């Protein structure tokens, strides 16, 4: 792929290690693995990551912000999802997700939704199972060690690193806003990439 065919310069992906997976590989993630390094770490295919981020953005853009929910149990992703929410208006749930939030209307913080995005299907499994019960499609960021049960769309990536999640959610936000017709180019994103990448 030519440099300008990516959603963000290739160098951005490489700098934050968005393509560096784990030493564990599942059969579900094999189609996204480009190679295995000498140290045993799997390397994801950057072209496939880039393509899937674009697909996920268009998928999310079919819904109103209040019809979607982003769930992130892992603390490394909290800052990124909070900034993503500020930019897009899509609600987030950062921290421990209580089972039943999407299925039990008696709960004080019950939410109705039509689409769910999780940062990791393992720690966020309760949200995934609730979404399945109500028939909402699930988009998930998946590393090489993840399984894809109950997922409608897998976005392969390093879903553990702060900077890789920062870059991913910034690219997802800008592509979502473009798909919505809210912005025309990257410079119009209200929060710059550097803020998403700050420690």
Please name the defining characteristics of this protein:
alpha/beta; 5-stranded parallel sheet; 199 residues
- As laid out across the biggest beta sheet, the strand order is 4-3-5-6-7
Q: What's the Cα radius of gyration? A: 16 Å
Q: How many separate domains make up the residues?
A: 1
The CATH topology comes to Rossmann fold
Instruction: Note the beta-strand portion.
Output: 5-15%
CATH class: Alpha Beta
The low-confidence parts are: none
Q: Can you say what the CATH homologous superfamily is?
A: Glucose-6-phosphate isomerase like protein, domain 1
Mean pLDDT, as a whole number? 96
Please tell me what the overall shape is: globular
Structural class: alpha/beta
CATH architecture: 3-Layer(aba) Sandwich
Question: Biggest β-sheet: count, sense, barrel?
Answer: 5 strands, parallel
SSE pattern, N- to C-terminal: HEEHEHEEHEEHH
- State the total count of DSSP E strands: 7
In DSSP terms (H or I, runs of 4 or more residues), the helix count works out at 6
Terminal Cα span: 30 Å
């Amino acid at each position: 792929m030519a440099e300008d065919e990516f959603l963000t310069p290739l160098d951005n992906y490489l700098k934050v290690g968005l393509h560096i997976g784990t030493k564990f590989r599942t059969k579900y993630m094999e189609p996204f693995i480009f190679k295995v390094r000498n140290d045993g770490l799997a390397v994801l295919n950057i072209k496939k990551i880039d393509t899937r981020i674009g697909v996920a953005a268009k998928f999310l853009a079919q819904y109103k912000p209040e019809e979607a929910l982003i769930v992130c149990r892992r603390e490394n992703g909290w800052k990124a999802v909070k900034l993503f929410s500020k930019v897009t208006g899509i609600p987030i749930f950062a921290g421990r997700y209580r089972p039943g939030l999407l299925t039990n209307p008696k709960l004080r913080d019950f939410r109705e939704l039509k689409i769910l995005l999780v940062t990791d299907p393992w720690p966020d499994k309760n949200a995934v199972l609730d979404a399945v019960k109500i028939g909402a499609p699930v988009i998930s960021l998946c590393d090489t060690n993840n399984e894809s049960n109950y997922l409608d769309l897998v976005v392969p990536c390093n879903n553990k690193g702060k900077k890789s999640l920062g870059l991913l959610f910034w690219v997802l936000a800008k592509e979502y806003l473009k798909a919505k017709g809210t912005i025309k180019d990257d410079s119009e994103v209200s929060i710059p990439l550097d803020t998403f990448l700050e420690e």
